[in-house]
Amino acid sequence: MILDNIKRFVKLAKKGNIIYFDTNYKISFPDEDYLNYPYELGENEVIMSFQNNIYIVYDKETTLVECFFDMEPDYVQSEYYLNDFSKNTGYTDYCYQYIKSSPNILLTNCLILGLGIGNIPNLLIQKFNDKINIIDCVDINKILCVIYKLFFNVSNKIKIYNEKAEDFIENTKKIYDYVFIDIPCFIVNKKFMDNIKKIITKKCFIQINLIGSGIEDIVPEELFNDFTIIESKIIDENNIFFLANK
Ligand SMILES: C[S@@+](CC[C@H](N)C(=O)[O-])C[C@H]1O[C@@H](n2cnc3c(N)ncnc32)[C@H](O)[C@@H]1O
User: Bigger pLDDT: 205 or 21?
Assistant: First the structure.
């Protein structure tokens, strides 16, 4: 389904390899120098620029799709292969392999804080659909939420909330059995984890990727005092923690 959506737009890009969406999500094909995108595109790559703010690079050959923010051009926010969401590398693969080998982890009601273009929710649906009732995804970035709904949403079990993760967890009345936290680390403080504690089941399993600088300033043991740390590992500069409810 996603592939069809993307292919439709790639076909439209007759004049070159750039698709531009303006603030009303109208499509045009501008000259290359109209874009701020800092890298040269590979032979099979097409780029979609969303208001020169978010870039989605799609490789027609491999089906790899990557999402960059103009503000952080060196950091891939989210990436996966559209022909197989589980063909990941790095921390998302590490998290996936753990769930795959742990049949006791419940995925009935899932919460993803930090949507990107939906690597994690789409992977969960592709691989564990039968176990899932709902996946609530929260992201602060409005354009990303629209992009996801337009191109990348694979299931009506996935619900998108365009708000700050810290506000969502403070206000929600829902209870989750699985939580994936994938937002900048300065947001994940003691108050944040206290609120997480309030919205999880006794058997909840939590995966955290603490991205961004400042990681050396936080003390995970203190932050996670109320949880059992199952595992903690650094993968490609991503600090991964697996937690269970105490
Ligand atoms: C590394 S990406 C997440 C990738 C994603 N988990 C996936 O499955 O592909 C980090 C995301 O966090 C979002 N973000 C940053 N600060 C946030 C906040 N305070 N609340 C919610 N989302 C936030 C960014 O917009 C970005 O999409």
Answer: 205
